[in-house]
Design brief:
Elements: E1 2-7, E2 25-30, E3 33-39, H1 41-44, H2 54-64, E4 73-76, H3 80-93, H4 102-114, E5 123-125, H5 128-140, E6 144-150, E7 157-165, E8 168-176, H6 181-188, H7 199-205, H8 215-219, E9 222-224, E10 230-232, H9 243-248, H10 262-290, E11 294-298, H11 305-314, E12 319-322, H12 328-342, H13 365-374, E13 379-382, H14 387-396, E14 401-404, E15 418-423, H15 428-438, E16 447-450, H16 455-458, E17 459-460, E18 465-466, E19 474-477, E20 494-496, E21 498-499, H17 506-519, E22 523-528, H18 540-548, E23 554-557, E24 560-564, E25 575-579, E26 583-588, E27 596-601, E28 608-611, H19 613-621, H20 628-632, H21 637-648, E29 652-656
Parallel strand pairs: 1-4, 4-5, 6-11, 11-12, 12-18, 14-23, 16-21
Antiparallel strand pairs: 1-2, 2-3, 6-7, 7-8, 9-10, 13-24, 14-15, 15-22, 16-22, 17-19, 19-20, 23-24, 25-29, 26-27, 27-28
Domain Carbamoyltransferase: 19-74, 122-337
Keywords: Transferase
GO molecular function, one term: transferase activity
């Protein structure tokens, strides 16, 4: 049985609001085994995209070596009624558009992208939390478990508690959308200058604050009840419920880009404490009520690794599993599992998921080398006899390394196949990478990657069994090791650890081991291979683009070591400029004023930038074939700097001339 699960929307509007049907992805499940899974953002380069996952579907089919007609059914990650209700709202708001429903649109998109005629009875909609639950339980390796789904919302619920076992998923309790802990967190982070998709940033800020400062205000938002119940403060219509208590005490909301004050740190600490109090109230009750010894925790809230660490330390369970793709991309997998069951293939338990390396690879060795050498005017390429040993020496010598090999990871975290790596010991490496690569706030922590042989020498993994291979749990760094691991130990003495086994990633495990042999510390700083403007890299082109637009010292792609020949600003002339499918230009002026030009990316909350007349005209003339020099002629230093800045922000792509 071969089923395809998908998440995302139907591309009805180019600027569909970013929080609606987000985390577009495709997953292919063959007889219960997850054989391919990747998010659409890796292809269209829009973070947390909600566009139809055509690129992801194509990648999954290619990875499995199957044609569209080989797929028995397609599972979608929301209930049909909710999908059609949302479309109904769209029809009412835009009466000039034709009336279309979910099945029709899915058939149309598949026909458009793949010439694939799918019968309506082979498109199967799944309740959102059921999809999440099956995705987690099927990969847990557990015979039975309490399965808790906690996110912003499903159809009309925000948390659902299940008991799984014997091929069944029995729902015990659901909590309403007004009780949503995911939405509470999402709505509250605007107070500290963040928005949708930035929850993890506020989680990282929380340890710098004192939760007692605003505890009274946060406690006014909820009331705990017996038996795992709780009430939330009824919202004033059209007003965020978190606004009133902080408005009353004169709390000044931070705006994006403004300095982070102690008040903002205290707010983040109070918000994190509130989430933990409410989540643990629910999970503790159901653990005791059912007597379950094993927990599968999933949904967007399950990516709060600080909360997950608290679950380990609570001792409520003997074992906890968190899927590496617990957000809505993972629900696509669950939709595929449910679709197979509806066709008569029972839910089968498989071994625990060992590796999240489920996406496309970088190509054959010859293909990788050919792509790298096409950039010969900017980079020099060598093939060391021992690339892992050479990389270990570079890291031990203080280099920051871009590291790409194998299949890309499914989920929001790079786990050693699309990573930026550095020595985990010097504290200044954290500040250096935050500034030179990520262009992000200095308070943001980085994760340590460690071998299983050394993990308990550095970290308190607790007595609760868990898979630490997916960076899902924040644990305590042993007190006598915190100074040694200065770049990855957070301000509160914790770290979001990744334990790398040979079975999960043999090359990455070897690299950490070799680094440990050179330095005495088998721990590396591991962060995702991307800058602040885009998702994690997928292809060799993505890898080179990120390397050339950051200050990463050296690049390792499969068996090749890559270094810059010259500054990028001096190598622009011979590169071909290609605007992205969503790149737009506009001009604005008033009588008597100079014309102002702007470039922007046409999707919800897409970035924009003012551009000079020279660069505006260059972008307007771009045909995807001409070099920068052919389009612009002689480049001044100012134009070169402007082009590199726009390239860093991914308003366009640059590549060598074929």
């Amino acid at each position: 049985m071969l089923t395809l699960g998908i998440s995302g929307h139907f591309d009805l509007l180019p600027a569909l609001y970013r929080a609606y049907m987000h985390d577009a992805a495709a997953c292919l499940v063959a007889d219960g085994e997850l054989v391919a899974a990747v998010e659409e953002e890796r292809f269209n380069r829009i973070k947390k995209t909600n566009r139809f996952p055509a690129g992801a579907i194509r990648a999954c089919l290619d990875l499995a070596g199957v044609a569209p007609g080989d797929v028995d059914a397609i599972g979608y990650y929301f209930d049909r009624d909710l999908v059609d209700l949302g479309l109904g709202n769209f029809h009412v708001a835009t009466p000039v558009q034709p009336v279309r429903w979910g099945v029709d649109l899915l058939q149309e998109r598949l026909r458009e992208h793949f010439d694939w005629e799918v019968p309506a009875d082979r498109i199967m909609f799944t309740r959102h939390h059921l999809a999440h639950a099956w995705s987690s339980f099927a990969r847990s390796g557990m015979a039975d478990a309490l399965v808790v789904v906690m996110d912003g919302r499903g159809e009309n619920v925000s948390t659902t508690v299940h008991l799984a076992g014997s091929g069944e998923m029995r729902e015990l309790k659901s909590y309403s959308v007004p009780q949503s802990l995911g939405l509470l967190y999402q709505e509250a982070i605007g107070h500290v200058g963040y928005g949708f998709g930035d929850e993890y940033k506020v989680m990282g800020l929380a340890p710098y604050g004192d939760p007692a400062t605003y505890r009274e205000q946060f406690r006014s938002l909820y009331a705990l009840r017996p038996d795992g119940e709780y009430d939330m403060t009824p919202p004033i219509p059209d007003i965020n419920p978190t606004v009133a208590p902080f408005y009353e005490v004169g709390f000044r909301a931070r705006r994006a880009g403004e300095p982070v004050t102690q008040e903002h740190k205290d707010f983040a600490a109070g918000l994190q404490e509130t989430l933990e109090v409410l989540a643990m109230h629910v999970i503790t009750h159901w653990a005791r009520r059912t007597g379950a010894k094993r927990l599968c925790f999933t949904g967007g809230v399950a990516h709060n690794s600080s909360l997950n660490g608290l679950l380990l330390r609570s001792g409520l369970f003997e074992e906890v599993f968190v899927h590496p793709s617990s957000h809505d991309a993972g629900a696509a997998e669950g939709a595929a599992i449910v679709a197979a069951a509806r066709l008569g293939t029972p839910h089968t338990r498989v071994e625990r998921l060992v590796s999240a390396s489920l996406g496309p690879d970088l190509g054959t060795s010859d293909e990788v080398e050919r792509t790298l050498r096409a950039w010969d005017g900017i980079v020099e390429v060598e093939r060391p006899a021992d690339v892992v040993g050479a990389t270990a020496e570079l890291l031990a010598g203080g280099a920051v390394v871009g590291w790409a090999h194998g299949r890309s990871e499914f989920g929001p975290r790079a786990l050693g196949n699309r990573s930026i790596l550095a020595d985990a010991r010097p504290a200044h490496n954290r500040d250096r990478i935050n500034a030179m690569v990520k262009k992000r706030e200095g308070f943001r922590p980085f994760a340590p990657a460690v071998t299983p042989e050394a993990a308990t020498d550095y970290f308190d993994l607790t007595a609760t069994e868990a898979d630490h291979g997916f960076m899902s749990f924040v644990v305590h760094v042993l007190e006598d090791r915190r100074a040694e691991l200065g770049a990855v130990t957070h301000v509160d003495g914790t770290a979001r650890v990744q334990v790398v086994t040979p079975a999960a990633n043999a090359r990455f495990h070897e690299l950490i081991t070799r680094f440990g042999e050179l330095t005495g510390t088998p721990v590396l700083l591991n962060t995702s291979f991307n800058n602040n403007a885009e998702p994690i890299v997928q292809s060799v082109h993505d890898v080179l683009t990120t390397y050339l637009t950051t200050e990463i010292d050296v690049l390792v792609v499969e068996d090749f070591l890559v270094r810059r020949r010259q500054p990028v600003t001096m190598a622009l002339d011979d590169l071909v400029l290609k605007v992205r499918p969503m790149t737009r230009l506009r001009q604005d002026w008033r009588p008597g004023e100079e014309v102002s030009g702007e470039v922007y990316l046409d999707y919800s909350f897409g970035p924009s930038a003012k551009v000079s007349p020279t660069v505006f005209n260059l972008l307007a003339a771009a045909d995807g074939e001409s070099t920068v020099a052919a389009l612009a002629g002689t480049l001044t230093d100012e134009v070169r700097e402007e082009l590199v800045s726009l390239w860093q922000q991914r308003f366009f792509a640059l590549s060598p001339k074929p």
